[in-house]
Write a structure and sequence with these properties.
Strand order of the largest sheet: 3-2-1-9-10-19
Number of strands: 19
Number of domains: 2
CATH architecture of the largest domain: 2-Layer Sandwich
Structural class: alpha+beta
Radius of gyration: 21 Å
Distance between the termini: 33 Å
CATH superfamily of the largest domain: ATPase, nucleotide binding domain
Length: 344
């Protein structure tokens, strides 16, 4: 009898939001136990792992030539299989310590809805080789809707706008299924790149992705706000004379830098709404849209979408954790997992 109880006692189930920017791990019975950047530092000679997550992110732009800092995911999918496997193995080992390490975990992974069959298999194989016992795949818009508390099982339209690091996905969900989804590989990472390009073009200033992300968080917005303009000092390297310098950048300039990216997101929402059945459109008129993902935190984005779509728009309570929380709920409900999991 003890042997029958042992697996249940020491094994664990994990929900992994494998994001381009961050990986969030939900452990059944404990909640979110890990939230770290999806970044790895490796030794160039033999590709051995030197640092993962926050430690690796701190090395960006600060390493000698024999060390490379890599993002193994790009646009929401695995770009480097071996490094992604090493990163996942590190995260799984970090969360499954002590008695839990005796058995390999069952893992539910969030994936972009628009990925190919080859990319889907790459995710599955990476997680299995990283130490999982079984792997289930759930589309991120579905997981985000569950994590945001939307009634996805009911026969009514639910509009979710999930803006991550690599992809923006707009989906209409009803009866535990995705009725229609639009996915574009334009999201938080492209916002950072747009800020880098703006500073290079207008100030001849070269900054790294870490600083661009900090500027986005401090000043990024989708619409102009009342009150005094905000500004931050930005330090980088002058592209003309090659020496370090600093400039002052305002929120209006950052908003201009992000304008094209924000327009793509708005257009993606419009494109999804144009393809849904009229009955579900009627539901969405009343319910509106829910924003999830790190991009939902861009100031004024909800206001802009409200104006452009003439629909109610709300930001989820924990937008950056919605996918992981949804995967965690799926772990607790086997019947829900059977309904929403996609073939691995």
């Amino acid at each position: 009898m003890l042997s029958n109880l042992l697996p249940r006692a020491v094994s664990t189930d994990l929900g992994i939001d494998l994001g381009t920017a961050n990986t969030v791990v939900f452990m059944r019975g404990e909640g979110i136990v890990l939230n770290e950047p999806s970044i790895v530092a490796i030794r160039e000679a033999d590709h051995s792992l030197l640092a993962v997550g926050r430690d690796a992110k701190a090395m960006i732009g600060r390493t000698p030539g024999h060390i490379m800092v890599i993002r193994p995911l790009k646009d929401g999918v695995i770009a480097d299989f071996d490094i992604a496997r090493g990163m996942l193995g590190y995260f799984i080992a970090k969360t499954c310590r002590g008695p839990r390490a005796l058995l390999r975990p069952r893992v539910v992974v969030g994936i972009p809805s628009g990925i190919t069959e080859v990319e889907r298999l790459a995710v599955r194989d990476s997680v299995l080789q990283a130490g999982a016992r079984d792997v289930y795949l759930v589309e991120e818009p579905m997981a985000a809707a569950i994590g945001a508390g939307l009634p996805i099982a009911a026969p009514g339209g639910n509009l979710i706008v999930d803006i991550g690091g690599g992809t923006t996905e707009v989906a209409v969900i009803s009866v535990s299924g995705v009725v229609h989804c639009r996915s574009v590989r334009t999201a938080g990472d492209e916002m950072d790149e747009a800020i880098i390009h703006y500073l290079r073009k207008h100030y001849n200033l070269l900054v790294g992705e870490r600083q661009a992300e900090a500027i986005k968080i401090a000043l990024g917005s989708a619409v102009s706000r009342d009150g005094a303009p905000q500004a931050v000092e930005v330090k980088g390297r002058d592209l003309i004379d090659g020496i370090p310098k600093s400039v002052v950048v305002t929120d209006a300039e950052v908003r201009e830098a992000l304008r094209e990216i924000v327009s793509v997101i708005v257009d993606t929402v419009h494109a999804c709404l144009e393809r849904i059945p009229p009955e579900l459109a009627a539901d969405i008129v009343d319910k509106g849209a829910v924003l999830t993902g790190g991009g939902a935190l861009l100031r004024g984005l909800d206001e802009l979408l409200r104006k452009e779509t003439r629909l109610p728009v709300a930001i989820a309570d924990e937008p950056m954790s919605c996918v992981a929380l949804g995967l965690g709920q799926v772990l607790d409900e086997l019947r829900l997992l059977q309904r929403v999991a996609t073939p691995a």
